[in-house]
Specification:
heterodimer, A: 3 helices, globular
Chain lengths: 134, 134
């Protein structure tokens, strides 16, 4: 599977999916004008990645680490993040260990709370990291 | 093969569940605090998976599917399974199959309304809230 990379803009997050390294990261701001248009290719990529994993049957000792490093996301973006986390949840249930790392700027408790809301809704484990000036 | 209805009578710790596609009845009602949430919800989720796969295959857009949810209480581990169910129904919605959650709560139980709103915030699946006056 080839990598999936999108440069961050003022309105849309940077996407860095490196399947060879099992490293996945979404970072920055998410307030796209057309949220569906931005996130649909991301979800489609994850779906084909899941299908790839199903046939590749990865080693269970390996763990997929997915990092969320948001400064901000709007409420419509949240619904698409739910779909992304849902896919990760299903990879964890069906294929291999997955862990979500949720980063938030040190004083940004709202961003931490948003991550905690997601973690309550899914069985995939979350780890929280506060970072000064992410 | 036709999908058999899924029926599980209420107990003190588990909700009453009827999923009957033939009659277009989909209901969960009561308490959800199973001692072993996985044991209770796994068969239910298996059923939902088969139902969603069959519904996508039939691709019938004419009938609107109403999932009526009326909890007096659900535990935090139950919430993760509910999210899993809603995520699967959202797939139908994303494929233009009309599906809607009817989230019922009693007049005095505003917390249950808020719990429904938490799900609604995280999903594109449509929610309709109905208050029951007792």
């Amino acid at each position: 599977m080839t990598s999936f990379l999108i440069e961050a803009t003022d309105m849309t997050p940077g996407i860095k999916f490196l399947p060879e390294k099992l490293e996945f990261e979404i970072s920055g701001e998410s307030r796209p004008e057309n949220v569906r248009k931005f996130y649909e290719p991301v979800l489609e990529w994850l779906e084909s990645y899941k299908n790839h994993l199903l046939t590749a049957k990865p080693n269970h000792a390996e763990k997929l680490i997915f990092k969320f490093k948001f400064q901000y996301f709007n409420s419509t973006s949240a619904k698409f993040l739910t779909s992304i986390i849902g896919k990760l949840d299903s990879i964890k249930e069906e294929i291999m260990p997955v862990e979500i790392e949720w980063y938030y700027d040190d004083p940004d408790i709202d961003m931490k709370n948003s991550g905690e809301e997601f973690s309550k809704m899914f069985s995939v484990p979350f780890r929280f990291f506060s970072t000064p000036n992410m | 093969m036709k999908l058999q209805p899924f029926i599980s009578p209420a107990t003190e710790s588990t909700p009453h569940v009827i999923f009957d596609p033939e009659k277009n009845i989909f209901e969960m009602k009561g308490e959800s605090r199973p001692e072993n949430a996985k044991a209770f919800y796994d068969p239910l989720i298996e059923w939902i998976k088969s139902f969603c796969a069959a519904t996508l295959e039939q691709n019938d857009h004419s009938a609107r599917l109403f999932f009526t949810i009326h909890f007096e209480y659900f535990s935090s581990s139950s919430a993760k399974y509910l999210m899993n169910i809603f995520g699967r129904l959202e797939e139908l919605h994303n494929n233009n199959i009309p599906v809607e959650i009817r989230w019922l709560y009693t007049e005095i139980d505003l917390e249950m309304k808020e719990s429904g709103e938490e799900f609604q915030k995280l999903l594109t699946l449509p929610f309709r809230f109905e208050v029951l006056i007792e």
